[in-house]
Structure formats: structure tokens, C-alpha cells
Specification:
single chain; about 625 residues; alpha/beta; five-stranded parallel beta sheet; four-stranded mixed beta sheet; 13 strands; globular
Amino acid sequence: MKKIFALLLALVMTMSLVACGGNAANDQQDGDAEGSKKIETLKVAFVPSREPEEIITVTEPLKQMLKDELAAQGYEVGDVEITVGTTYEAVGEGLEAGTIDVGLIPGGTYVLYDDGAEVILTATRDGLSKDSDNAKDWNDGQPTEASDKQVVSYRALFIAGPSAKGQELEEHYFGVIRPEVSEFMKELDEELWKLGVPAKTKHNEVAPCQHELAPIFDTTNVAIDHNLLTMEMMRKIAPKYGLVCLQHEKPFEGVNGSGKHNNWSISTKSENLLDPGDTPMENLQFMVFLTAVIKAVDEYADLLRTSVATPGNDHRLGANEAPPAIISIFVGEELEAVIDAVCTDSPYAGPVKMKMDLGVDVLPKFSKDTTDRNRTSPFAFTGNKFEFRMPGSAENLSDCNTILNTAVAKALKEFVAETSGAADFECAAAAWVKKTLNDHRRVIFNGNGYSEAWEAEAARRGLPNRKCTPDAMVALKEEKNISLMEEFGVLTKTEMLSRYEVEMEHYSKIINIEARTMLKIASKQLIPAATSYMGEVASTAAAKTAAVEGISTKSEAKLLTALSKYTDEMSDATDALKAVTDKVSALDDETAKAHAFHDEVLPAMDTLRAAADAAEELVDEDYWPLPCYSRMLFYTE
């Protein structure tokens, strides 16, 4: 069996010298009396961590270095061929297939292809001044600095939860921003302002250690660029304050995930076309544009859902503070009454303004806002704009805004086609509004989006409910969605189908990496930790029995029995997860593979997670190698 060698690099792509690999051994010819061996062509591949031309140029001296070094080891190398893979996975697949002798790959790629590659040299980098499993040691307000010690990896986390202290009191949401976080936000604001990003609002969010930042409105293209810059600066600045900025949509089970509120409106240079004014019933212009948005969201809800479908966001949607996977529109009581009046030709009496009682007689009473937000709605009208709340915190907002803009453009194009030749434009516009609202008012829902009753009602209305990424992505292949994108020159059919393939493949790769990382952590850290602690407990029980005849060891026996059960469950779950991950990874069809990762691999991961959580509750924290929720989220010892 030939061996294929790989150079495993740290996650920062620091390149170092690679040694000769096994595929070249097949090209070796008998040497001379001194044992010289000949390699006709040594094939070296780099992952595309930089521009391929740059990598090829700067590694040119490596060819002669390899020839000289291997000559000293008794090898005669005819030629060294250096290439750059089209993707990271291409290099891994080349190693596995034997078409590459030596590869320079990062840890994430190695996890996928470790069965077909052997590490012979690992790049090192400066270690960190902190290497504790206690989160407070990392969050002491002092910067984490490089140390003189060279390391091959940084600490990884496999976290059980939820914490004994949850978020049910909501004291974090209403509390003061922690001093170290406030200092981080202050510098973040200053750096963003230097880049022209108008960052403005910041406050605590519901979950512990969760915070929000909001900029001032801007045009779509600029706002999206600003959002991406903000994400980058958050990650860059946080370590200076002993913090890590997690932008995963759901990093902690049982604790709120993180998302983005995409506030969207449509305007001229001087007028917001979604401003209802004081009398929305009489504002025909507003009603036309409101109706166009309602029509667009209803007709292309499935396509809009694809823009927020990711492995991480699948964990978040439908949880506290995140909308469900069913796309509906919240318009508020006042606008709902307007829509009812338009659709039924009934009189509109105007909103009933409720006076707010402040409990203090000397203060004036004022009217309660009738457009109060519904936080369970995916797409809510909030006064003079819509707020799309489904995107996850790691999302690039280009996709959802592209789809939303195109769908609304389609609705407005149809409005123009039906009214432009009318003798009485206002009557024709009003008739279009009435007809369109009647056709699409099924998407309007002002109630609780988390309730089971709404899920059943949405199904009755015929609204799509695609809860996971593999189910959602099929919309990219549907003819009505392809026709929409082609009609406005946004994407071709080929590009839409390509996106489907890429997204399904990406989903599979992410879940595969997560599953294989979970396997390594469970087998190399968690099971050994539980076993070691059981040995300590057994030794304690034996020592007690030897010291005092007949002494009770009931607590030790009870602990050993329970922990042995959970450790066995972890071991069995690890075997099952490996088997199903290997089986699913071998599938050739990307659609079938993505669905199998969701339907088969994720449940196997949940089973292993449950066993690990149960074991963590029993193992002494000095033995458990990873920090618990409380240490990371609540700054405790």
C-alpha cells in the first residue's frame, strides 16, 4: 500500500519545507551500488491560500532546495513540479488519489483527507501567552501576546451546556455593558469611523456576552461593504481586549444565536417611498410600493429563504429572538386594518390611538406607537421600512438584497404594464393594489411566529416551510426563480444551477468537517478524561475499603456506574458517527450527500453530544479538558 505524505500546516497558512512523498516511490528506479534512488518527477502541490501566480513565483527556489536536500538523503530527483490546487479540497483529493506526492495543506483539509495522507512535517508558529482552559484567564483585560514557545496548534473547544445559569432573567439585555466590552466597542467605533463606516448604536443583547452594533442607513451596495468591514474589524480588534468575537450563528446550545437585521426600503433621492405618512389609507403611492413588496415576498419566499440558508443558521432559525423558517410579513395593526379595508371595500376608521399611562400625573400622556415590532416575524414593517431578520451573523447580505431588489422590481414592472395605458391612472393603480393584496395577503401574519398553531396555519395557506439548507436550496433550480433572475439579467440558468451545486457541496463539507472534528475531540480528549476520572474514583473507593473495613463506598459506586454508562455511550456514539460519516462522505451525488448529512450525520452528532454533556456533569472539572459555559459566558472561576 503506497503512502502519500502531506505537510500539515497551522490554520494560519505559514508555509515551510516539505519532504519527499510516497507516490514518487512508485517512480523510483534501482540505484547504484551506494543505494542512490531516482525520482523522475516529484509533484508538490500548494493550496490556493494566495494568488496562484504569486505562490508559483515565490516557491521557485524550493525546487533546487528539494533536489539538494533529497540528494543528501540518497535520492536523485529529475524534476520538481510545483502546482497550486484550484481549491483546498483539490489538493487533499490529489493526495488521496496519489496524483500528488507532497501537499502543503491546513488542518481543516487534513481532517477531511487524513486517511489518504500522512503528516511528516508540521509548521509551527508562536504560541500564546495564555493557554488556559479557564475563560477568565483569557478575559482578564490584558492582550494575548505571542510567546517564545513554538506550537503546532491552538486550543480547540468542545463545549457542553446549557449553563446552570441561563438567560431567563434577561438581566444582560437590560444591564450595563461590561467595562472591557465597552472599551472594545469604543475602539471599534473609532476604527470604523476612520474607514467611513457610520457605526452608531451599540448595546447588550439578550444572551450573555452578546452585543449589538448598528450603523446609519446607506445605499445597499455601500451598506453591505460596510457590514463586511465591520465584521472584519470586530474579529481584528477583539483579541486586544482578551476577547474573541464569535460570528457563528449558534455557537452555544440553549443560548440565543446571533443574526443580522437587514433594514430595507426604497426611495428616490429625496423621498422614502415606503413612508406611509399620517394617512396611509389615502397615500396611493405608499400603497403601491407596499403592495409590490408584499407580492414580491409572497411569490419568491422560497428564493429569499435560500439567501439565509447555511449550516449554522439552521440551528438558529425558530429559536428565541430569531424568526422561524416560514417567511411571513408583519405589518402591524394599523396597516392590517388599511389592507382589510382595501381588500373588502369597507370603510376605514383610522387607528385607535391608545394613551400610555406613565403613572406620573405631572408628565403628559402620549399615544402608543401602532407599528410596534413583532420579534417573531421574519419580515416586519417597522414604520417606514421593512426589517428582514432571518440572515445569520456570518451572512454576506448581498444575496438576500439581490433577491429582494429583483423580486420587487418584477412586481413594479407588472404594475407599470397594467396601469401605464389606463385612462384614469389613479383608478387603475387602486384596482391593482386591491387585486394584488387579495391575491397575496396570505403572507401577512401579525401573530406569534413561534407557535405550533402558526406552523399549521402556514401550511394551510400554502406557505413554504423549508427548515434546513438542503431543503431550501432546491428553490435555486425552480423555473419561476430562474426566469426571474434571467429576466432582469441578474443570473443565467447555468449560474443558478451552479449555485445550487456549490451550496449543496458547501453544506456537506461543513458538516463533514464538524463531524470529524467532533470525533477527534471525543476520542482523544473526552473519553480519556472520563476514563481517567473513573480510575481516580475507583482508587478512592479501594483506599477507603482498605483503610476501614465495611466502610460505605455507595457514592463512588453510584458515580462509577453512571459515568461508565455515559462513557460507553460516548464510545458507541463515536463509532456510529464515524461509520455514518464515512458512508455519507462516499456518496457521489451532491444532492443526496447533503440530505444524508442532514438526515443521518447530524442526528449521530446529537447523540454523541448528549452523552458528552451527561459525562461532563459528573467528571471533576480538573479532569475535564474543556471549559464549561459558565466560565466562558459569565466570567466565573
